[in-house]
């Protein structure tokens, strides 16, 4: 059983780092929900990146909501790096066929994948025809980030759906599937070091032993909360934890 005394902490907001951008409309909705409910239903999920700092691997909008509301510390689950697997979302873009025509002086567009070369993104249409986009200069990871921002900016954040796996035969006639190159944690850490963010909704972490539905009252993140009160909440929550090892399907 997970020990909340070591895995659930109140962390200073200034020691929590983001690697991905956010959606303003989603931030407004998240902040409103937190204010109305007066609880943080799920803690922000983080992993340690150095002696003092932590990276958000799930919960950017929850973190920013609490920060905007003036909280100096926020409740975070701390997971080991080995318990977090980094994946990439794909974007199913509605009426996105025009994306296939995008051009940029830094991008090379080809119809066949190039062996031993890393594409930035690829776009597949309803006829399962794929275009691959490569960088003229692919030695600098920042160039990949710029190119990803370039393509994501070409479609509205409200007109795409994040998907992890999809049968390309299911793509509707006017839609396209945008798939991004893989990143590793070392590259993500370098982005954080350089204060660079990936576009919103492109990374996805599979997390072992994730804590859900803790419903942490906001009062525990206020500056005047005592350590004994926080530890009392930790103990009472620990007693109510239930572990479910089965694989599940959760409807978002």
TrEMBL record:
It comes from the Bacteria. CDD domains: SbnI_like_N (cd16388). InterPro entries: ParB/Sulfiredoxin_sf, ParB_N, SbnI-like, SbnI-like_N. This is Predicted transcriptional regulators. Residues 12-83 form the ParB-like N-terminal domain. Gene3D superfamilies: Conserved hypothetical protein from pyrococcus furiosus pfu- 392566-001, ParB domain. Coiled coil: none annotated. The lineage of its organism: Bacteria, Bacillati, Bacillota, Bacilli, Bacillales. Pfam families: ParB_N (PF02195).
């Amino acid at each position: 059983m997970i020990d909340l005394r070591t895995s659930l902490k109140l962390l200073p907001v200034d020691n929590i780092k983001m690697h991905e951008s956010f959606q303003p409309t989603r931030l407004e909705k998240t902040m409103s929900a937190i204010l109305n409910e007066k609880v943080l239903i799920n803690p922000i999920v983080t992993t340690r990146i150095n002696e003092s700092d932590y990276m958000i691997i799930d919960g950017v909008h929850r973190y920013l909501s609490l920060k905007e509301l003036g909280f100096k510390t926020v409740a975070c689950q701390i997971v080991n790096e080995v318990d977090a697997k980094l994946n990439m979302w794909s974007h199913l873009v509605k009426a996105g066929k025009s994306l296939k025509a995008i051009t940029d002086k830094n991008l090379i567009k080809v119809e066949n994948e190039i062996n031993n070369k890393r594409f930035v993104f690829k776009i597949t249409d309803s006829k399962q025809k794929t275009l691959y986009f490569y960088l003229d200069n692919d030695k600098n990871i920042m160039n990949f980030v710029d190119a990803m921002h370039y393509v994501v900016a070409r479609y509205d954040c409200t007109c795409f759906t994040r998907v992890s796996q999809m049968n390309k035969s299911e793509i509707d006639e006017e839609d396209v599937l945008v798939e991004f190159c893989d990143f590793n944690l070392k590259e993500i850490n370098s982005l954080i070091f350089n204060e660079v963010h990936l576009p919103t909704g492109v990374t996805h972490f599979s997390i072992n032993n994730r804590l859900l539905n803790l419903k942490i009252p906001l009062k525990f993140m206020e500056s005047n909360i005592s350590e004994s009160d926080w530890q009392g909440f930790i103990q009472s929550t620990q007693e109510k934890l239930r572990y479910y090892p089965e694989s599940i399907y959760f409807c978002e």
